[in-house]
């Protein structure tokens, strides 16, 4: 399937959005050229809006990649802080360079390692938590994420419809069956979790937004 949104609608939304420039545009070009997954433009704008509506001051991100979304969050906050976890050392190096170039190294901390090991060691509470890492591992991150999220905080889970495969077996690629089953379990769990109120939005590759009651 590839796209979960009508391509004409997706193209229209992306064309009407203000275009990034400078380092952020360079990061988008790098990600496209090197097949590095970063948030789609319409999802990036959604993250900005959520961050500002929630008056976010602290963000925990699982899945840094090249630092694109961490920078998006920081620019949307007023004197906010981001802690971002990334297991790939090559991505950590690139992200830290990008963050330094943007002059944001005092606001964004990138921690290298496996999220399921790092999350239980973190202290404090966060206004917003963003899951954008290995799609089949979200359930492993969830318990710690809920514990680290403030009451009234927001949990955003990206790529939850996974090219439409999660919605229908018609689109499932055989080698992705395990990931799809795990994501379906994750979505069912957060939809019915007593501490969360969740909405599933067909934007980008699917975004789940959960409010901690």
From TrEMBL:
EC number annotated for this UniProt entry: 2.1.1.-
InterPro entries linked to this entry: SAM_O-MeTrfase (IPR002935), TrmR_methyltr (IPR043675)
Source taxon at top rank: Bacteria
Binding site for S-adenosyl-L-methionine: 39, 69, 86, 132
Top-level class of the enzyme under EC nomenclature: transferase
Binding residue positions for Mg(2+): 132, 158-159
Subunit structure: Homodimer.
Name the UniProt record assigns to this protein: tRNA 5-hydroxyuridine methyltransferase
